From TrEMBL:
PANTHER family xref list: ABC TRANSPORTER I FAMILY MEMBER 17
Superkingdom to which the source organism belongs: Bacteria
Residue ranges of every copy of the ABC transporter domain listed in the record: 4-217
Native organism taxonomy: Bacteria, Bacillati, Actinomycetota, Coriobacteriia, Coriobacteriales
An example Gene Ontology molecular-function term: ATP hydrolysis activity
PROSITE patterns, per database record: ABC_TRANSPORTER_1, ABC_TRANSPORTER_2
Protein name: ATP-binding cassette domain-containing protein
Residues in the signal sequence: none
InterPro entries documented for this protein: AAA+_ATPase, ABC_transporter-like_ATP-bd, ABC_transporter-like_CS, P-loop_NTPase
Length: 218
């Protein structure tokens, strides 16, 4: 069975048709790059994938069940979304990386956190750093650490390496690839041509709110 299915989905907001007649299917373990010009609807598509917003028309199914009927908290644990603009909260980095444990009522695994931070070139001392003093690239990596601490079924990534230098972008790509190889579905919005083809097995192109093409890469 398909993991995630869009059937004839429209999304309208503010008198504008942002997504039009979108149908698409994703299976467990897919790695799909979502590309298209600015304003073509890529972020809106990702927000629909995790029910941050719901279709104006049409349906989205998760494991064959209408997503609107899914428990929102349960869904958050199965489908993780990393935003284009990193959103950090609380005072310190620790407040952020502890959050995924708090929502799951699990004991914090400090060793795992420190090891994931290290993979992104952030040492343990960052845990006590105040969020407000961090650079854009540090914020982006910390928001990724927060997202990647638990393996979701589907990982939604929106331009997550845009504030990173080439070396850090590659570290992030490797980590995401590692997750995908464990079976996590990755839907990745990227403006970077090379990045969009590097690991993905499918390239989904949006244009003016419609799926313009779906190209198998390998
Ligand atoms: N809540 C909203 N109300 C009105 N218009 C919206 C809303 N959300 C998105 N839009 C508009 O819908 C279009 C698609 O936006 P979206 O952010 O999905 O595009 P995108 O392809 O991700 O763009 P970018 O590559 O620039 O991030 C844009 O024209 C945007 O201004």
């Amino acid at each position: 069975m398909e993991q995630l299915t869009f059937r004839d989905v429209f999304y309208r907001q503010g008198g504008k048709e942002i997504l039009k007649d979108v149908s698409a299917q994703f299976s467990a373990g897919d790695f799909v790059s979502i590309v298209g010009p600015s304003g073509s609807g890529k972020s809106t598509f990702l927000r629909l994938c995790c029910h941050l917003i719901s279709p104006t028309e049409g349906k989205i199914f998760f494991h064959g069940k209408d997503m609107l009927q899914e428990d929102p908290i349960g869904l958050r644990k199965k489908i993780s979304y990393c935003f284009q603009e990193p959103v950090l909260w609380g005072n310190t980095v620790e407040d952020n990386v502890a959050f995924p444990y708090r929502v799951r009522d699990r004991k914090i695994d400090r060793e795992k956190i420190v090891s994931l931070l290290a993979r992104f070139h952030l040492d343990e001392s960052y845990l006590s750093h105040e969020v407000k003093g961090l650079s854009g690239g540090e914020k982006q990596r910390i928001s990724l650490v927060r997202t990647l601490l638990f393996e979701p079924e589907i990982l939604l990534l929106d331009e997550v390496t845009s504030a990173l230098d080439a070396e850090n972008a590659e570290l992030v790509e490797k980590e995401i690839l590692r997750m995908n190889r464990k079976g996590v579905t990755v839907l990745w919005v990227t403006h970077n041509d090379a990045q969009s083809r590097k690991y993905a097995d499918r390239l989904l192109t949006l244009e003016n709110g419609r799926i313009q093409s779906s190209e198998e890469i390998k």
